[in-house]
Amino acid sequence: MVTIKRNSDDHNETIRLNKETQVSKAVAIKNALNAEAGPLIDEAELWRAVESKDAAFDGLFVFAVTSTGVYCRPSCPSRRARRDRVQFFRLPEGAERAGFRSCKRCKPDAAPSPDPHVELVRKACRIIESRQPAPGLDELSTELGISQFHLQRVFKRIAGVTPRQYARARRVDEFKERVKRGDSIVGAMYDAGYGSSSRLYESATEELGMTPAELRRGGRGMQINFATAACSLGRILVGATEKGVCAVSLGESDKELESMLKSEYPEAKITRGGKSLDHSVALLLDHLQGEQPHLDLPIDVQATAFQRRVWEELRKIPYGDTRSYGDVAKAIGSPSSVRAVARACATNRVALVIPCHRVIREDKSLGGYKWGLKRKEKLLKNESARAQR
Predict the structure, then answer these.
(1) Domains with residue ranges and CATH for the chain
(2) 356 flagged as catalytic
């Protein structure tokens, strides 16, 4: 009897640990692939996983080093390269298509995921990414040999989005990358899988945060001055034009923040310094210390009409308070646009000025945050405590 009980306990413990591992994997995948509440790939979060050599992210993405031409899994024991030499890919195949070769130490292309559901989603993602137009749910489920219902349910649980939403986000990402590389709008449109210009402008403008032509210009003709400073959340970068603040970013280093600014506005003339920034930087630092709870800085950011409505509503959320994505959708008169509201929050370029950190999920969990969930948690905790005082 004792032996049987011990085996039973061991078995139950194994089941419990396996479930915890699967939940951890699912959360990590959702953070890496979530297109609903943040960018399709949150590079700041992925870089933190690489820096900490977090094995929980193995199989969810790979990173490549441009100086060596090698790609690795996040937990690779090799010495870490500089951030500006690292690129991220969802799958090893993507890194190899870009010309990188597999690391001989960590073998990122060798071991399959231990979770069959994760592997199923990876296969579905490969199929979606390899075809134009992307296959529908019926075609995808037939090829994978499972029912549409099961595929939809598993994909949504693991990736946080449906196969259709994933395909749409991938198409937008592809279009943006091609335009930023210098391709023509028409060429990028067809290469990314848009069948016509009307489809592009109907579905992509909300995702891009600007018209395709504005994206193509990449800030051409803009003069942006920027400054960086230490703050309670690490480093802060503030960029501004003569019209107003166009960028407020949070990160670990000035190099990371400056690189991010240049990627957002690749054609703009960007210069460090300028006395006109002193006031804005001082206000933002005071705001983080609770001495300036209400920010009223002018902003100069491209936005669709929908994004502007969402951002204006976010600026109405009282200091120390929060709203759900659903609350914001109802407040702007579009209760069914919860996902679009989340996407508008994710494309916010001026952190703190537009307080997207005050939007959380219906179940009170934090949701996504472009600058890292730890920063979001700290911001909300500090604001709540100061508001109560």
Answers:
(1) 41-111 (3.40.10.10), 112-217 (1.10.10.60), 223-288 (3.30.160.70), 305-388 (1.10.10.10)
(2) yes
